[in-house]
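Notes from the pairing session

We agreed to fold both candidates in a single pass and log them together. This is the raw record for the first candidate, unedited. Please don't reformat it; downstream parsing expects exactly this layout.

Candidate A
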Amino acid sequence: MSTPGTLAFVGSLAALALSIGYIADYKTGGAPLQHVTDTVWIATLGIHYKLAVTGLNVMLIGLTTLLFAASTLAANLRSPESALERPRLFFFHFMLAESAVLGAFLAQDLILFVAFFDLMLIPFYFLIGGWGREPDRVKATIKLVIYTLVGSLLMLAAAVATGVLAAQQGGGHITFVLSALHALPLSTGSQEWIFLCFAAAFLVKMPASRCTAGCRTATARCRWRC
């Protein structure tokens, strides 16, 4: 293992151990949000840096850390003939990708979730563009950026609309904290078009979507060059 690869693998194991601890410590009959981190991020806009473990994300966190740890190990165990080029840069982007995915699962603020969702685009852009299989990697990278940005714009618009409409109907201060939004239900019409925006944003990353078919091909058939 190279030094960057070893550090990345140790970091992924630490994340896996932490997620196992969260799973073991999760109390099914306890509070809905556990291991909460809540800090005001942008007070004037009601945006919080709020992370928490819930019954919905606790197993997803464990699965994510397990897959990234296994992938990091696999990347480190490649033969010398097919070793990674620029391993320091590769593992930096790989660990950034894991952090962004975990942040999206843990986020309990709608704007924070959108931020982590968009942050995932940066490392995957460089991973596919820098280490993807020729000759499709450039085309796949362009498709990834275009479709994900379009989806992200729809998601951002829906997230902002959710907070604004909820504040108008509730007569209170604008907020994007999910637990607060639960107490401020929107009208049926608003819920429908907001749902469609979020569904479209998620659909472009679904395996069944033709939008990212080239990205999956370039990634799944990745060729690591020395």
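Candidate B (folded immediately after A)
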Amino acid sequence: MLSTVGEGVAGYVTPKVAVAAVVSNENQEILLTQRADSGWWLYRSAGRRRLLASEIAMKEVLEETGSSASRCA
């Protein structure tokens, strides 16, 4: 793993799949995460084998916030 990828954004060298989750509440406010090195982001994760993108997104939201998420169409 490199310390930075691209324009100073910390991350993995070669993620094959990236998944991001848009988390909103009943007021249509969007939940973001703040990284000290690169600002505000959606919750995201590198893809893992044998998981659907929606499963990865829901797992990431649970890990980062402690709140469960559900798929929406």
